[in-house]
Amino acid sequence: MFGWKEMAKDLGPMGTYRVQMLGDKQAGGIMKNPMNGAPSCWLVYFFVTDRKHSTEKAKKLGAQALMENAPIPELGAFSMFTDPVGATFAMFQPNMSATGKC
Fold first, then answer.
1. Number of domains in the chain
2. Which residue stretches of 1-102 are H helix?
3. Tens digit of pLDDT for each residue in 32-71?
4. Structural domain harbouring 58
């Protein structure tokens, strides 16, 4: 529907991450929910250049960390939060050394 091509990545115990590519850029990704028992959901990711610093800043601003600095092999890593009013979001830092670009 969107013209994406799928590229499957084995995440070991976390299952398969299905990267959705639009040309040479990542447009999205699909995987099973990493938190057992949690309902299915859509999750907004913000790209960041320093995930560890951004994770600490989000916590100082009142966000509650659900997952911190979780690696996605060959792609990067992410942290997931709920903000002070309950919205869920994540921050993703791509592995620039592997791809050379976002």
1. 1
2. 51-60, 96-99
3. 776 777 777 778 888 899 988 999 999 999 999 998 988 8
4. 5-99
Q: Which of 32, 38, 39 is nearest to 12 (CA)?
A: 32
Long-range contacts, 75-78 (Cβ 8 Å, 24+): 75/9, 75/17, 75/19, 75/26, 76/51, 77/51, 78/45, 78/51
Q: Which helix (H) or strand (E) holds 28?
A: strand 25-30
Q: What is the CATH number of the domain that holds 60?
A: 3.10.180.10
Nearest to 46 by CA among 2, 85, 87, 1: 87
pLDDT digits (tens, 9 = 90+) for 64-87: 999 898 888 778 889 999 999 988
